[in-house]
Amino acid sequence: MVPSEETQFVPKERVFWSCSQNIFDEIKRRSQIHNAAEEPRVLCIIQDTTSAKTVNERLTLNLPASTTLSKLYEDVAHKAGYIKGTFDLAWGNVLDMAPLEHNSEMSLSESGFDSGGKRNFLQLTDRDGEQPQIASVTDLYSSGLDDSSQERFIGPLPRDGSACGSGDYSSPSYSYSSILSKSDTGYVGLVNQAMTCYLNSLLQTLYMTPEFRNALYNWEFEDSEEDPVTSIPYQLQRLFVLLQTSKKRAIETTDVTRSFGWDSSEAWQQHDVQELCRVMFDALEQKWKQTEQADLINQLYQGKLKDYVRCLECGYESWRIDTYLDIPLVIRPFGASQAYGSVEEALQAFIQPETLDGPNQYFCERCKKKCDARKGLRFLHFPYLLTLQLKRFDFDYTTMHRIKLNDRMTFPEELDMSPFIDVEDEKSPQTESCTDSGAENEGSCHSDQMSNDFSTDDCVDEGICLDSTSSTERAFKPKSLLTFELFSVMVHSGSAAGGHYYACIKSFSDGQWYSFNDQHVSKITQDDIRKTYGGSSGSRGYYSSAFASSTNAYMLIYRLKDPSRNSKFLAVEDFPNHIKSLVQKEKESEEQEKRQREIERNTCKIKLFCVHPVKMMIESKLEVHKDKTLREATEMAYKLMELEGVVPLDCCRLVKYDEFHEYLERSYEGEEDTTMGSLLGGVKSSYMFDLLLETRRPEQVFQPYKPGEVMVKVHVVDLKSETIAPPISVRAYLNQSITEFKQLIDQATGLPAETMRVVLERCYNDLRLLYVPNKTLKAEGFFRSNKVFVESSELTDHQVPFTDSLLWKLLDRHGNTIRLLVLLPEQSPGTLNLSLQQQQQQGSSTSDSQKSSDASDFEHIESPTQDADSNSSLCVAADNRELENRIRATPGGSGGTSSDNENQFACEERSDSEVNNDRSTSSVDSDILSSSHSSDTLCNADSGPIQLANGLDSHSITSSRRSKAHEGKKETWDTAEEDSGTDSEYDDNGKSKTEFKYLYFRAEPYSQDDASWETQKCLVVYVDKRITLAAFKQNLEPYVGVPSTQFKVFRVYANNQEFESVRLNETLSSFSDDNKITIRLGRALKKGEYRVKVYQLLVNEPEPCKFLLDTVFAKGMTVRQSKEELLPQLKEQCRLDLSIDRVRLRKKTWKNPGTVFLDCHVYEEDISISSNWEVFLEVLNEPEKMKSMSQLAVLTRRWSPSTMKLGPFQEVILESSSVEELKEKLSEISGITLENLEFAKGRGTFPCDISVLEIHQDLDWNPKVSTLNVWPLYICDDGAVVFYRNSTEETLELSEDERNELMKKESSRLLKTGYRVSYSPRKEKALKIYLDGGPVKDPGQD
């Protein structure tokens, strides 16, 4: 006897060792789990650089440090959707390193990966120049996906860049993939342009229809007759050829949509696939006229049916023959709660006749009276390709919204149409056939259920004709002639608001079903087809509960089973000659595209700058192949920057450049033959640096720039002339000491290092004196690009603390001075010169007292009344050309040829014109915003300033940087008209009570060459931005000609909007260089005053809010006092002669009238007032009735249902918030009895307009409340709108025409008032295909 497994005898020793081994394995396994939990992990970030679509994608893996490289490749392949072994992984931050080994068993930690949260950057690249292969569904299953996930590729998948879905379903987890390799199914997908999934589904269905595809191939395009771009059949032909022969995973449909006459905006329009089918078929028929394919659509898709009415008394029948391209099947009958369960049931209902009786009786021509009749449809012809549309989109009259019916409806794989021929419930022996409303096939389909008709010739009929066959012959018609097989199911997933289409199509070649979901093509089974029946019963597979019932079949296409007519696809060798030529042309185009793509993948694209001798700083993009040498790249950049004939090629070189810091990082001496890929670190989507094409004069020599050097712009300061010279560029190393750095500056400027003071500007108010000799530049805070100021003199200024020195004050003024453009008000000729002369005289009269003040007090020295070499400080008499010449600063250095006066003027101009040195910037770019009038220089080893070889100066580079900084800077609007006199330092006129502390201020005429503003009306003002608005206005007094309290300052913004600046105690720190200011004459606001905009309230006018004027209200003023001041202004400016007792002021909140202000109310005490305050002025027909704040003013309006009209507004004054009192008041003014009076609160903003077609049901009439201040009324303040009506009044009965006419009038009225007409929904854009290449636009249309 052979013992069984249970009865086998095992020695005790084996049992013991077996148990011991099991225990040991379990301990080892738990130990491994414990160790894995404590094991350090490696964070890998992988960038897919294999295509342009994936270069911005990142894969993130957090793996144990013991993971092998082989396992890393496996994990990346699984997450990216690639086949392992078809791609390489390389370090992303190391140049020219070989890819990681594919089959290596080395751990990540042994391979140089950093653990502990540090990021390891890798690049996923091509292997041997070939694109990674996309993993198929089978590959993904074999890589560890469980069976439950197998269905995730059936149904809606995300599309690249697509927004077709409406968000009604959640997309499954899916990794991006390239479209460059063909699917394993052998079929090619279509790229979704944005929302063109409906188009892709139809195109794939037509492509998979042998009869349609073969007929399209047999059509030949004639170049001489039509432009290929606008030829729809030709573009479809090209598309089908690409679908059959391309090696890509998916191809674009843009050429097809372009032939439709669509622009890019059409790609973002969602449309119905059945609508597209009919419109495209119509377009093809038009294009195929007078060709062999002229009747192709009718031959394949058109059927015929009879629309009849039969008298039930005499049997007389009138009928009309109509054509159809598809049969619309109702999912759920109107008013029914139960849907049809199958297509067969819906077809039976489609041909089920209805009885016309009662008021719907039919007038019989034979009986000459109204009789009961039977009306219905009979199929006469079935098309070869039968299209069924399942009408899943309906309208819900309860919610007044479109809905989608997701009910379950089954459909067979083979459909027998024989039961649906000529179905009749009964037949009278007196039946006669005649044509009543038109000849056969005249092309007018009057049935509400039918689709659009298509006219056909009467003599052509390729369908299944049964009208000439007797009923006996029809009864014996072979069933096989009426059997159709299903081959396409177009599925819609989503709701009525939007969703996604895809197609399930059976191939007639192998009988296999495939899912064509945009660019994704995969095999599916009959089970997947059954999942598109709809409903929620049965297993839904991968579909989530969020959209389980919203993914269902929408269009079904069947083909007649007839071996004599069923075609096979044309093989490539059987193609017509013109198609073979097209295949070869497309193949060459695809090869060329592949080569171009390969070039693109090996092309370095980097930003290129150049200081052009004529065009100044220009910017471009250099595109150079990675294998091109530096010498070849320099020649390409030379031509790109258009330097031919301007600078010799041998006087140009490419250097590494940092645009943000304006830093020349390094030059490439001796590397002219090195490839650009090596110099730039390979091909990357973006680089952390730029290139600069540097130029020199023939006699100059390029200076080498070494890595690790820092760039320093050195400004020489002359304390005697108070001059700050233009910058000189010096390069140094961060490890150099301050002593060594001073020696470098000595060589560049000639200043003695022994007495040199060096000041580093790092950020705002951070001027650091570098005085420790052995301290390194790095320790002092130097970075890539820096700015320093140097000074060397024998003055005693060295001995005082730095912050008290003249040097510090000069630099401080230099960093805080801004340039403003001030437009003066209209004045008589010579006023400006007179004002300037007065200013000059004031300067002469006060010069002695100014000179006696402390010389180190810079604020007093630079006051506008100072006489600083009066011949040069005031520029009135100077010619504009001479003035512009004198503005230019001295070139810097220790020597100069200018006279003392010129030096003095240059000193002032340099310190004022370098206004872009905004110290609010960080230390890394503190040198960016330097003078627009200076020019940078660079010193070589020899002494004396030498112009920078590349011409890189602060005007050319810095001006572009400055403009970018200003463009990106968010300006703060100084529009608040708050209480400008709250500070005790200002009196009632806004002038300072204390001694005025002058900061730097200087004004000069604006040159006519600089702007379109007239010379005598504009000033250029250089002013310290820390000055207050009050001080700024006092400094402008001599130029405006009136006291500061008599003019206003308006700041002009980029869009030429002007806003008044009124905060006298605020500084000009929010202003920046070249900001514009407009001065307007008029009384400025005093302490406690507010500027107020007054609007007139016209409750019964089409525009109830009308602007009147600007006025000024003051704190402590009563409402009556403000009305007394306002009425004369209204009479003078608006020609309104009003009585003070017939005028009220009330609160204005946007367009809504609010609280009524009583005459005794005091501003700021009873009424809160703020900046930009607005108020309503209302003219009364009778004296004011509002006497107390306990009263309530309500605006009422009567609605008359019998006339469909609204009456005018009438104001009702209530003594309390009682609903009963409101109804009593309404009863008094209307005559409606209390029991019949109904009211409702208006909605929205005043005047609460509403359509008379909606007011009856849209408002909450007669709310069950006793007070007005509770829900749903919430009437707590004046100005509420209340509608009222008589409940016994009957609503006017309107005909359809009258209702439509009234609807148009209401729509026009309400649109003018800004009311949104809710009954007129937004119209969807109609789907159109333009046969002439595009829509004709109205030339007067924008």
Automatic annotation (TrEMBL):
The USP domain extends over: 188-561
Q: What highest taxon heads this organism's lineage?
A: Eukaryota
Listed Acidic residues bias regions: 974-987
Give the compositionally biased regions (Polar residues): 430-449, 863-873
Q: Where is the composition biased (Low complexity)?
A: 835-855, 920-936
Any one GO MF annotation of this record? cysteine-type deubiquitinase activity
Q: Report the Pfam families cross-referenced here.
A: Ubiquitin_USP47_N, UCH, USP47_C
GO process annotations (BP): protein deubiquitination
Q: What SUPFAM superfamilies would the database entry show?
A: Cysteine proteinases
Q: Which GO terms describe its cellular component?
A: cytosol; nucleus
**Which parts of this chain are annotated as the region Disordered?**
421-449, 834-873, 887-989
Q: Where is the composition biased (Basic and acidic residues)?
A: 907-917
User: What is the protein name given in its UniProt record?
Assistant: Ubiquitin carboxyl-terminal hydrolase 47
Q: What species was this sequence derived from?
A: Oryzias sinensis (Chinese medaka)
Specify the taxonomic lineage.
Eukaryota, Metazoa, Chordata, Craniata, Vertebrata
